C-alpha cells in the first residue's frame, strides 16, 4: 500500500505545477489580448488624426494630451469656453492632418505596430516610420480609453 502513495504524490506534484504554469499562460494571454486592443485603438486613432477625421476628437484625452513634445493639454485646459475648446480641437486635427500630408506622410509606411511598454496606468504603442519610431500612449481615465500622447523618437 505504501508503494501506491509515492506515485500518487509524484503525480499530484506534477499536476499542480502544470496548473500553476497554465494559470500563468492564461494571465499572459489575457494581457496580450488587452494590449492588442490598445494597438488597434492607437493605430486607428493615429490614422484618423492623420486623415483629419473630426470623429477622432473623442479618442484623445485633451486635458493631458501631448504631441511631439508640446503640452497641448495645458493650452486646452486654459481655455474658458466650450466654443474655444471646440475650435482648439478642430484646429489641431485640421493642422495635424495638413502637416502630415505636406510633409509627405504616408500611412502605409507606418509598420510593425506593437506594444513597447505596458503597465497599470498606460500602454505605449509603437510603429516604425521612415523618420523614426512613432509612439502613441493609450491610457484609461474615468473608465474611458484615450490617446494621451503622440511622439516621434528619432
| Count of individual domains | 1
Please compute the radius of gyration using only Cα atoms: 23 Å
* Class from secondary-structure proportions: alpha+beta
Q: Quick one: overall form?
A: globular
- The percentage helix is 40-55%
Q: Helical element count?
A: 3
Q: CATH topology, what is it called?
A: Nuclear Transport Factor 2, Chain: A
**Uncertain stretches of 5 or more adjacent residues:** 26-33
- Listing every helix as H and every strand as E from the N terminus to the C terminus, the arrangement reads HEEHHEEEE
Oligomer: single chain
* Strand content bin: 25-35%
Mean pLDDT score: 85
CATH architecture term: Roll
For the largest beta-sheet, the strand count, sense and barrel status come to: 6 strands, mixed
Strand order of the largest sheet: 2-1-6-5-4-3
Which CATH class? Answer: Alpha Beta
Distance between the termini: 70 Å
- Strand tally is 6
Amino acid at each position: 500500500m505504501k508503494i501506491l502513495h509515492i506515485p500518487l504524490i509524484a503525480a499530484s506534484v506534477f499536476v499542480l505545477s502544470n496548473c500553476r504554469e497554465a494559470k500563468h499562460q492564461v494571465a499572459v494571454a489575457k494581457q496580450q489580448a488587452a494590449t492588442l486592443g490598445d494597438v488597434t485603438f492607437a493605430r486607428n486613432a493615429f490614422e484618423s488624426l492623420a486623415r483629419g477625421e473630426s470623429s477622432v476628437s473623442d479618442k484623445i484625452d485633451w486635458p493631458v494630451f501631448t504631441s511631439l513634445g508640446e503640452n497641448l493639454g495645458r493650452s486646452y485646459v486654459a481655455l474658458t469656453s466650450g466654443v474655444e475648446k471646440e475650435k482648439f480641437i478642430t484646429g489641431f486635427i485640421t493642422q495635424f492632418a495638413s502637416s502630415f500630408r505636406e510633409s509627405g506622410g504616408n500611412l502605409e509606411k507606418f509598420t510593425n505596430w506593437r506594444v513597447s511598454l505596458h503597465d497599470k496606468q498606460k500602454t505605449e504603442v509603437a510603429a516604425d516610420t521612415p523618420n523614426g519610431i512613432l509612439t502613441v500612449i493609450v491610457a484609461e481615465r474615468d473608465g474611458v480609453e484615450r490617446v494621451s500622447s503622440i511622439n516621434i523618437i528619432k
